[in-house]
Amino acid sequence: MAAHLFAAKDHAAVYQKYRFPPPENLQGVILSYLEKKKVTSFHLAVDVGCGTGQSSHLLAKRFEKVVGTDVSEAQIEEAKRTAHPPNVSYLVCPAEELPFEDRSVDLLTAFTAAHWFDIPRFMKEVDRLLKPSGCVALSTNTLDMRLHYKDCSEKLTEIFREVQGQIFPYSNEKIKFVTDDYKAIFDSLPLQDKERITEILDKLPMSVADLMGYIQSFSPYQTFLKAQPEAAKSLIQNTEQRILETMGVSSRETKLELCTRHVCVLGYK
Questions:
Q1: What residues have CB less than 8 Å from 47, skipping those under 6 apart?
Q2: Of 172, 144, 173, nearest in space to 160 by CA
Q3: Which residue, 181, 206, 208, is CA-closest to 262?
Q4: In this structure, are residues 111 and 47 in contact, taking their beta carbons and an 8 Å threshold?
Q5: Which residue from 74, 111, 159, 266 puts its CA 20 to 30 A from 92's CA?
Q6: In degrees rounded to 5, what are phi and psi of residue 30?
């Protein structure tokens, strides 16, 4: 069964504001894979579970037509409201029932989304939609994230992981696909030519304010917020104060780095 955890309008607005696009090294892995497989057709890319469209924009640089799809109407409305390239369009539909013709898709992607799908049904769609010589790229950021700022990186990371620990009990069971580095998703991909890369490291500069927004975009935090609104809000306020004090700064706009690890499952038909 697919999980619908990003459907609320307020969550979609936070997602649009604070979720970052696929980082540079992850983009490089996918582009290098297309080059390695000598992909020559760049007509249609379908970005499944596109959320508010950050990843769809990147695909527009390479493909003639990009269609971002998401089961959440609120997410798609946010995507449509945000300025986007003219060759990008959006559709509300489930990942397991994509409205495209058989063998019509050159690249099918899902960024930090595939683990929410009904995996067996989605994989049938992957097999149905990809052209011969078409590719699929399914990636996610892992829970292995660290904070970096001058000489207090270790303490900042400790604070961040405490927050992760507090909201983790509110995670959906599908988080198991992330904690196993997408191995089950790799095993389910119905293509013979496939690979899984688990050490894609990136550093993302962001302000303390953006970091707080990013934490609030996590689905476990949103579940925590619904269950215990005052405790959830207090967690964000206290965490922000602890981070500022640890950094020795007062401005929420002070920049630090979020160090991430992504995994990516790649396949060629």
A1: 55, 56, 59, 66, 67, 68, 69, 109, 110, 111
A2: 144
A3: 181
A4: yes
A5: 266
A6: -70, -45
